[in-house]
Design a protein that fits this description.
Elements: H1 2-16, H2 22-32, E1 53-54, E2 59-63, H3 69-76, E3 82-85, H4 95-98, H5 102-107, E4 111-112, E5 117-121, H6 131-138, E6 143-148, H7 151-168, H8 176-180, E7 181-182, E8 185-186, H9 191-195, H10 198-205, E9 214-218, H11 219-224, H12 226-236, E10 248-251, E11 256-261, E12 264-266, H13 281-302
Parallel strand pairs: 2-5, 2-6, 3-5, 6-9
Antiparallel strand pairs: 1-4, 7-8, 10-11, 11-12
Helix pairs in contact: 10-13
Length: 309
């Protein structure tokens, strides 16, 4: 990433013929390569450093929603051999995008050098019925990253995001318990619960990919101690170890780790790490009980267990 930014800096200062403050320029370039971008259109205006091209991702973070995909992507962006498209492209799960074709998809990727891996992340892929086959059709040997967390915690986080979005839009909000419990029973049709049935979704992916092509990142561990999980990803991607403990510092105010790289410090967006509602213990136990069998099946599928309820 640093090499790409420096090359773009030289191009801009040469072509524009006017002094540019380093910090302001770097902020612009970071945005152009998708670091804090919310719109894929930013890539169309990106300056192309010499020797780079837009490439189809060699690795995709396929999910899961509210599992920690944003944190994983930004932490991996520390690595000099990784470039990231932080916009969620939704190419493989949205028909209206998929029909636009692979060249459209490629044009939304950042420029990269030959020695760099392009990574795209769209959390909706994991739960999409179409995404596994479509990604396999694009590249049957691709490496996939899947970050998961305790299914019950993920449901609550899912609810929390929607809750705040509705508040900001001045829409009516419902307490968690009213959504999760219907007629005295667990509302298993609630989309947030459906997304946490990891075994059901994983089964679809294993029909198209070998298990050794899918690396599962422990989302609960990543937020508590990022480095070991990131080192496992480096190994999975056959990359040299470049991410170090000095790249992270714990922000006491936010309550999670932030990133230090390229002489700068940054934290996840303020929408991340929002306080969760206090959930009734009886409801929590119902969720734990419901997911228990699904979790056990998932552990058998991936030959690995996690410290989930």
């Amino acid at each position: 990433m640093a090499f790409l930014l420096v090359s773009a800096y030289l191009l801009l200062t040469h072509t524009q013929g006017a002094p540019v403050e380093n910090e302001a320029l770097l902020e612009t370039l970071k945005s152009q390569v998708g670091f804090f971008s919310n719109k894929s259109e930013h890539y169309s205006a990106q300056v192309r450093p010499p020797g780079t091209n837009r490439r189809i991702p060699q690795t995709i973070i396929i999910g899961v929603r509210k599992g920690g995909t944003r944190a994983l992507l930004e932490m991996l962006d520390i690595h000099p051999n990784i470039v990231v498209a932080t916009t969620e492209v939704h190419f493989f799960d949205w028909d209206e995008n998929y029909v636009k074709g692979i060249d459209w998809y490629r044009r939304l990727m950042p420029f990269s050098y030959e020695n760099q891996i392009t990574i795209e992340k769209t959390p909706g892929y994991f739960t999409s019925p179409q995404a596994p086959e479509r990604i396999h059709d694009m590249n049957s040997s691709i490496k996939l990253l899947l970050i998961l967390r305790d299914p019950t915690e993920r449901v609550i986080s899912d609810y929390t995001q929607v809750y705040y979005n509705r508040l900001e839009s001045h829409k009516r909000v419902q307490p968690f318990e009213e959504i999760v419990i219907k007629n005295g029973a667990l509302n298993t049709k609630y989309k947030a619960i459906q997304r946490s049935l990891y075994d059901i979704h994983m089964e679809k992916w294993l029909k198209h990919f070998n298990l050794d092509q899918i690396h599962i990142v422990d989302g609960n561990t990543l937020i508590k101690d990022p480095l070991p999980e990131l080192q496992k990803v480096e190994t999975f991607l056959n990359l040299p170890s470049r991410i170090m403990s000095s790249n992270f510092y714990f922000n006491q105010t936010k309550g999670f780790y932030c990133i230090r790289s390229d002489g700068r410090e940054r934290c996840l967006h303020e929408s991340k790490g929002r306080p969760h509602p206090v959930v009734n213990n009886t409801v929590l136990e119902q969720l734990y009980s419901y997911f228990r069998e699904h979790n056990a099946k998932f552990y058998r599928m991936v030959n690995h267990s996690f410290d989930w309820h």
